[in-house]
Amino acid sequence: MENLERLLREHDFLKDLAQPQAASLVSCVKNLRFESGAFLMREGDEASTFYLLRRGRVVLEVDVPGKGPLVMESLGPGDIVGLSWLFPPHRVHIDARAVDPVVALAFDGGCLRGKMEEDHDLGFALTRRLLAETYKRLQRVRLQRLDVYANP
Amino acid sequence: MTARTDPWSPTPTRILRVRRETRDTFTVELEGQNRAFEPGQFNMLYLFGIGEVPVSISGDPGNPDVLVHTIRAVGTTTLAMKRQAKRGSALGVRGPFGSAWPVRAAEGDDLLIMAGGLGLAPLRPVMYHALRHRQRFGRVTLLYGARSPEDLLFRSEHGRWARKDCVVEVTVDRAGPNWVGRVGVVPALVDVTPLDPARTTAMLCGPEVMMRFSVRTLEARGLAHERIFVSMERSMKCAVGFCGHCQFGPTFVCKDGPVLRLDRIARLFGKREI
Amino acid sequence: MENEGVVLSREGFAALLRALREDGYRLVGPTVRDGAIVYDTIGGIADLPEGWTEVQERGRYRLERRTDRALFGFAVGPESFKRSFFAPTVSLWRARRKDGSFVVLDRAAEMPRVALIGARACDLHAIAIQDRVLLEGPAVDPSYAARRRGAFVVALNCGTAGGTCFCVSMGTGPKAASGFDLALTELFDGEDHRFLVQVASPEGAAILARVPHGEAQKTDLEAAERVVQNTASQMGRSLDTTGIKELLYRNLDHPRWDDVADRCLACANCTLVCPTCFCSTVEDVTDLDGEHAERVQRWDSCFTLDHSYVHGGSVRPSTKSRYRQWLTHKLASWIDQFGTSGCVGCGRCVTWCPVGIDITEEVAAIRSTEKG
């Protein structure tokens, strides 16, 4: 358990989280490994997990009939995967596939929601991090959709 | 500036080799004729009877025997160049013109080289220079993005650069399932790069929006504008400050630029329709 | 030679022009054509706009008869001397295809020397400004240099201010201070019509020595001084240049730019009549069999969409941004680029704007409504 707590506090997403708060999260988290090619989650599944990537690369992809899967974004160590666990109806929007051997801390979404409700200070700390991460990803998507390298 | 008396007059220069780079981009190697250049400078290339375009020099500044230009075929002149340029024929050359990347001032620093699309072309001379004089620099990192894996320039060289103690991070905006590299934008690569703001010199070239977004991420990492250099693009006809087309506020991109230190243009960088 | 003590009669002035022609100069001076006073090649004083003046206001220009026989009794017409040195169309070079390559053919660079007759202080400043751009930078424009080299300048201290003149605000006139060989002030004393001549160069002194002239009296010097003082007091416009660079740099997003954009037609008239505007473009042309090619340089204007075209589109698609570019370049960034204003206060852009946009009014509007 101490080992998990250390792993949590080492991850970029939870950096500088107070020790008691990190300790309280340990009961919601597992350290998981995925083979290359394995899916961390698939579109339409129940969204029950929040991942903090520790090693390896994960791609977010959408299957487009006639075109096959298109990769929207790749994520790596320090990144988070999955936000749908936060909001009803807790349904996964996009496929997340490991393209390397991946190691990730996997939170049980229900457990994490419970902790955030129970302790609003913890809830605020996590919400702020989630918002920052979401904002960063939103900025990237904005630039990406500008398609700046396209032929005029 | 060249020693030639007439800055308008092109010098006919033989093509040694033409190489296809991507679907719309090709590289022309011309006889060097001992034209020394500094990384970041450009030449005006003239196709007989068709027109003239500014093209950055993408070759090795340590090799004056060849003059290398990587050209994207997008307009009348460059499309015609793509069709007509072949070994043994000639292009007119004026130059080299413009300011250079601060490769000497940055000695002792970490180099953070950020390129988008064709923007790698004017930065490749920096890579050649930095790798030739590797001990003069700290960390050398290339962050490079393109539209798709097929649009990546100089792919065969990325591995060679990485083997010479240089970090090469590549990303694309979009990819199919067979691409195992990164998918995302260049600024996202800054987040995976160690950066010491006290000893990093950043050099950026790519579409202006890509540079603007990248600058914002560098600012967030504490890098001062004095340590950020961008290569600007504007319309150019003369390349020597006569024609007035390339003005960016008080800056003539042709002779004060194309490489500009960000603090000197920050007032206008990102301002609409300047 | 006396520095400012020579008087030329009308006949003496005519002899001066003849002497210049004898020396091989092409005389370029004011003459009436198409209802305006333009600068063109002249033969002698018979071609000058004797007894004419003009009435100028924003968007308006009209010739009127004077009551005297003044040869220079007007302010400035639509054209400056810009085209004498910075020609509207120039063949930069010709080339011929050869062995898969090409050769650039030599071209005659010698141009006949010109003598400017009656150049105003504002226009002399404009020439000095263009010299900085095309002669005194890191590169020299050969065509400009060939035309400019050896030019003889007969300046004319203004005896009449136009309705759109503001050289006093710009510190450029109405008295010529430099850039000439001889400077004239046109004087009338009843029927007696003569010129006080200031000599500023050995070439000027040499040619003056060959024409009949007299000693100036103290009264002539005083009369000449009164002429320019009177002109200075008649300025049709004024422009407050205090901190103007910073003012404009601070106000790139001022709503006044939208206001002017609603009126501006982006017709480029202002840039064509401006004596300092130097933008040009090039065209590459070939003959029918494609064996010969030529590059031609033409005047261009920052009011065209093409001016800022980079692959994919124009950097300045809106009229607002193009007007802002022109005005801020002229009055602000020019100072950073060349150490002087790009405006000499000649007022041509005000007179020749088809919708009467007035640069002095636009700056005043920005100044008075700047958000502090």
Q: Helix and strand layout, with pairings?
A:
The complex is a heterotrimer of chains A (152), B (274) and C (372).
Chain A lengths: L1 H9 L8 H7 L3 E6 L4 E3 L7 E7 L2 E7 L3 E8 L4 E2 L13 E4 L3 E7 H10 L1 H27 L6
Helix pairs in contact in A: 1-2, 3-4
Chain B lengths: L10 E12 L2 E7 L10 E6 L3 E6 L9 E7 L3 H9 L5 E8 L12 E7 L7 H9 L7 E7 L8 H9 L3 E6 L9 E2 L2 H5 L9 E6 L2 H13 L7 E4 L15 E2 L2 E2 L6 E3 H4 L9
Parallel strand pairs in B: 7-8, 7-11, 8-9, 9-10, 11-12
Antiparallel strand pairs in B: 1-2, 1-6, 2-5, 3-4, 3-6, 12-15, 13-14
Chain C lengths: L5 E4 H13 L3 E8 L2 E6 L10 E6 L2 E6 L16 H4 L3 E10 L2 E5 L8 E6 L1 H14 L7 H7 L3 E6 L9 H4 L11 E8 L2 E8 L2 H8 L4 E2 L2 H16 L10 H7 L5 H8 L5 H5 L6 E7 L5 E8 L9 E2 L2 E2 L4 H20 L9 H4 L7 H10 L4
Parallel strand pairs in C: 2-8, 8-9, 9-10
Antiparallel strand pairs in C: 1-11, 1-12, 2-3, 4-5, 6-7, 6-14, 10-11, 13-14, 15-16
Helix pairs in contact in C: 8-11, 9-11
Structural summary, described in words:
The complex is a heterotrimer of chains A (152), B (274) and C (372). Chain A has 4 helices and 8 strands. Chain A is an alpha+beta fold. A 4-stranded antiparallel sheet of chain A has the order 1-8-3-6. Chain A has a 4-stranded antiparallel sheet with strand order 2-7-4-5, with no helix packed on it. In chain A, helix 1 (2-10) crosses helix 2 (19-25) and helix 3 (109-118) crosses helix 4. Chain B is an alpha/beta fold and 274 residues long. Chain B has 3 domains: 11-97, Translation factors (Elongation Factor Tu (Ef-tu), domain 3, Beta Barrel), CATH 2.40.30.10; 110-225, Rossmann fold (3-Layer(aba) Sandwich); 232-274, no CATH class. Chain B has 6 helices and 15 strands. The longest helix of chain B is centred in the last third of the chain and has 13 residues, at 208-220. The model of chain B has no long low-confidence stretch (mean pLDDT 95). Chain C has 372 residues and is α+β, with helices and mostly antiparallel strands. Chain C contains 13 helices and 16 strands. Chain C has helices at residues 10-22, 82-85, 121-134, 142-148, 167-170, 202-209, 218-233, 244-250, 256-263, 269-273, 319-338, 348-351, 359-368; strands at 6-9, 26-33, 36-41, 52-57, 60-65, 89-98, 101-105, 114-119, 152-157, 182-189, 192-199, 214-215, 280-286, 292-299, 309-310, 313-314. In chain C, the strands form 4 sheets. Chain C has an 8-stranded mixed sheet with strand order 3-2-8-9-10-11-1-12, with helices on both faces. In chain C, strand 9, helix 5 and strand 10 (182-189) form a beta-alpha-beta unit. Chain C is globular, with a radius of gyration of 22 Å. Chain A binds chain B through residues 57, 59, 61, 68-74, 76-78, 99-100, 136, 139-140, 143-144, 146-152, and chain B through 24, 74, 116-118, 145-147, 151, 171, 173-177, 179-185, 187-188, 191-192, 206-207, 209-210, 213, 216.
